[in-house]
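Progress against Task 2.4 (sequence-to-structure conversion) is shown through the following example record, which the project officer requested during the mid-term review.
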Amino acid sequence: MKKILVIDDEEWLREMVHMALRQKGYEVVEAGNGADGIEIARKELPDLILCDINMQKVDGYLTLSSLRNESPTAAIPFILMTGLADNAGMRHGMELGADDYLAKPFTTDDLYAAVEARLKKAQAVREEAERKLATLRDNISLMLPHELRTPLNGILAYGEILTEDAPSLKTDDIVEMGRVIHQSGKRLERLIENFLIYAQLEMVAADPQSVSALRIGRTGHAAPLVEKRATAQAALANRSQDLTSELADVAVPMVEEYLGKIVDELTQNAFKFSKAGSPVTVQLSETSNTVILTFSDRGRGFSSEQASRVGAYMQFDRKMHEQQGLGLGLTIAKRLVELHGGSLAIEGQKDVGATIIVKLPQPKPDETAPAD
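Structure tokens generated for the chain above:
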């Protein structure tokens, strides 16, 4: 039985809503003001909250804001009820995280429609999250053993040869074995690093306070950092001559560590999935309200269906193209951007090339100081 919390300072309205919802089989709890509603929501963790806006002391906006800032209650569907609906008020409520508005006076049919729509949407979100989690488990179980064993086998095999046969080996052979061991170790290091970063980001995403703290970070002059990280990736791919940078020295609303990680992953992907001699372009620009990072190549590209399925431990066309890694780098970049209030979009055509566009909100004038 779904539990619904009704918060309103008018007793007759609470009773009417209570009776109507009970007739539909819902469990209903009530609060006569916003302060009590917050406490009851924390204790009961209802499936849906119906809350009046105009109440004394703690109004509907404050109630909504308080519950959205606490992890246990942050995701509870929240419908604001008001007899003074206007565009500015509705926009303010949506910015605070309201899911819907119910204008007073309303009929029982209006009430049922709003409640059922929100509950169905919440159920759909839960089912999608469970589906993604199941896919994640499947991809980890299928791919992680291979990704761990491949570099580990190289390290163990060459380590054994060097231990047992070093006196009989030529210097060039020892150098080559050392190179392979070093590359395999770096591959394992990156794999473990990405796994830990992804797990960390998922924990941050579940805590609204952690997300808010994350968004405080700034890189005041981003162009040198982007240039340095993109150039390093070009050198690692032995394609320094293929890299073109067009960078405006703007502020980015993200600490240097995370900005560098995004540049590393998206530049590396551009080189990994395009041929030597073809151009890779990294651009940094801004508009009045947006900072834009763009990574373009003329390589394998994505189909529209693949672009929509970017997710953790997901690789595309693995049977056709040998590639290293868990397909996690792009997902980490996307997650970082989203946690900072931005978006990551993929454009282009399969076998023609890809352009990945990162958009972040422009830092406010008083928040553009360097992170260091």
